[in-house]
């Protein structure tokens, strides 16, 4: 298992800054995901770690040893790109064996390794097929086997599932996660897909405009985003503008006023900012339609009108207008079809103060 240290990486393309002093540490054996929109710098960072691109400043180290001057072919890494890069004139067997031939491994040992890699990705019956006869999911399995067969110290994956349909994406991310855990290979994974990142990662680093905004396990980033960008990019989030009047009030909560309804209470789980404008973040699944019995009616309740209803089987999703120009998304899991709200219904929404987040603005 390899520990990767990325320290102060800067990369510019002409006048444009692609990375502005990025520092990260990938623990040994983890699947570490760079998540962000197109153009945020995540692929640039991966290519620098691979040695395919030189940084302007900063360093990359494997197990404490700098590799900045080490060429890609000497870093012992496996790379899976968005484009499959399968050799169309070679069979599945020959494609998987390509890296072993480049290392001049003897044929008997190489054949055994290819067979084992094919078994891991369930491609044993197709070793003698040509790539043109494979589905997209099968081609991706070949690419994965080719990356793993060389027994890399580090696996790099750049949007590996973006060319697959929804069903195959779910299937292949399960395959990738299973193999990564079984082999214990430190993996740097790049994606813009929030669901994919949540499902596959040990740690996620959310990036935007060449900077890392927050790093942590999926549950921590989803439940406790530090700023508005992370909150809205990683899952749906209702964001409300408010004004903080007095921190840590009665009941151990901070009260925030908005332009509609009673104040919103935020559980005081850390130092609150001083009085002034703030953003509140509320996940759609944290809002309840109708307050539970016995709930204090002066906090975190707002009346509204249902304007949209979406029934998705496991989830009912409502849009509720609570003020002119202000609409909240509400998700009810495992809904009772008989009690679904209808467009035009009047409702009262409520949220537990522990599930309301105070968000910093986008830096």
What does this structure look like?
23% of the residues lie in helices and 35% in strands. It is α+β, with helices and mostly antiparallel strands. The protein has a 6-stranded mixed sheet with strand order 6-7-8-3-9-10, with helices on both faces. A hairpin with a 6-residue loop joins strand 12 and strand 13 (264-267). Helix 4 packs across helix 5. The radius of gyration is 25 Å and the shape is elongated. It starts with a strand and ends with a strand. 36% of the residues are buried.
How would you state the average pLDDT, rounded?
Answer: 89
Largest sheet: 6 strands, mixed
Category from helices, strands and their pairing? alpha+beta
Strand-residue proportion: 25-35%
Number of separate helices:
9
Give the helix level as a range of percent: 10-25%
Gyration radius (Cα, Å) is: 25 Å
Strand and helix order: EEEHEEEHHHHEHEHEEHHEEEEEEEEEE
Q: Categorize the overall geometry.
A: elongated
Order of strands across the main sheet: 6-7-8-3-9-10
Parts with pLDDT < 50 across at least 5 consecutive residues: none
The end-to-end span amounts to 35 Å
Number of strands: 20
């Amino acid at each position: 298992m390899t520990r990767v240290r990325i320290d102060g990486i800067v990369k510019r393309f002409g006048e444009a800054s692609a990375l502005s002093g990025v520092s990260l540490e990938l623990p040994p054996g983890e699947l570490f995901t760079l998540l962000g929109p197109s153009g945020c710098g995540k692929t640039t960072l991966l290519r620098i770690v691979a040695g395919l691109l030189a940084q302007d400043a900063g360093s990359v180290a494997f197990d404490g040893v700098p590799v900045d001057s080490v060429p890609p072919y000497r870093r012992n890494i496996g790379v899976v790109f968005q484009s499959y890069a399968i050799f169309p004139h070679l069979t599945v067997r020959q494609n998987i064996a390509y890296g072993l031939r480049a290392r001049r491994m003897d044929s008997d040992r190489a054949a055994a390794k290819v067979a084992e890699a094919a078994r891991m990705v369930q491609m044993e019956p197709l070793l003698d097929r040509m790539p043109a006869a494979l589905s997209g999911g099968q081609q991706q399995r070949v690419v994965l086997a080719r990356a793993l067969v060389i027994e890399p110290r580090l696996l790099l994956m750049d949007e590996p599932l973006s060319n697959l349909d929804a069903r195959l994406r779910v299937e292949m991310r399960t395959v990738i996660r299973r193999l990564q855990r079984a082999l214990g290979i430190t993996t740097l994974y790049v994606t813009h897909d929030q669901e994919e990142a949540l499902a596959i990662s040990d740690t996620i680093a959310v990036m935007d405009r060449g900077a890392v905004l927050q790093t942590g396990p999926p549950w921590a980033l989803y439940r406790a985003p530090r700023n508005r960008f992370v909150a809205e990019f990683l899952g749906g989030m209702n964001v409300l503008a408010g004004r903080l009047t007095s921190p840590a009030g009665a009941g151990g909560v901070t009260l925030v006023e908005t332009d509609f309804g009673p104040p919103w209470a935020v559980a005081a789980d850390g130092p609150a900012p001083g009085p002034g404008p703030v953003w509140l973040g509320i996940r759609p699944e944290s809002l309840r339609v109708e307050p539970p019995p016995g709930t204090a009616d002066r906090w975190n309740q707002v009346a509204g009108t249902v304007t949209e209803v979406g029934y998705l089987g496991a989830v009912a999703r409502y849009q509720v207008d609570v003020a002119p120009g202000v609409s909240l998304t509400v998700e009810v899991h495992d809904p009772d079809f008989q009690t679904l709200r209808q467009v035009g219904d009047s409702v009262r929404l409520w949220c537990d103060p522990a599930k309301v987040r105070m968000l910093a603005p986008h830096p």
